[in-house]
Design a protein that fits this description.
Structural class: mainly alpha
Number of domains: 1
Number of helices: 7
CATH class: Mainly Alpha
Largest sheet: none
CATH topology: Four Helix Bundle (Hemerythrin (Met), subunit A)
Distance between the termini: 8 Å
């Protein structure tokens, strides 16, 4: 199984777990439960990191030195027509959220987290990953 597919599978499993959790629990119950909350945050963090790794790997396979700042990966993919302007903005926001999870986990905006869970915005992670991998395949990059 290729590196990109392994990362996509990790994202898929995380999204499925979040869907089950949100379907079975009230959002406020998830937020108030220390173990559930931290499970959600970990799944989001590792899924976003897998998305970042997919972008980095694709750029590397194209012979492009990946940017030193994660947020620039979205711009670089947009510049190469792997994602649209709108998707680039979304990916930049997702990466910014990951940075908060990693570096400022005590300062997480719980209202934003509620919105992400309520509207299942975490599904955007897998949508972006799939699109990047599909474009990579069209460009001759083996996933």
């Amino acid at each position: 199984m290729g590196d990109l597919i392994v990362r996509l599978d990790h994202i898929r499993k995380g999204i499925e777990a979040l869907n089950k959790l949100v379907s079975k629990n009230d959002i406020e119950s998830i937020i108030q439960d220390f173990i559930l909350l931290n499970s959600v945050l970990h799944i989001l963090q590792t899924s976003i990191q897998a998305l970042i790794d997919i972008g980095t790997r694709v750029l590397s396979e194209m012979g492009i030195k990946p940017p030193s700042v994660y947020r620039e990966i979205a711009r670089s993919l947009k510049d190469r027509k792997f994602i649209t302007d709108e998707e680039s903005e979304l990916m930049t926001k997702i990466i910014g959220f990951r940075n908060i999870l990693v570096h400022g986990y005590l300062a997480i905006n719980l209202e934003l987290l509620r919105e992400i869970l309520r509207e299942r915005k975490y599904g955007d992670i897998i949508k972006l990953a799939i699109k990047i991998i599909e474009k990579a395949q069209q460009s001759g990059i083996d996933p």
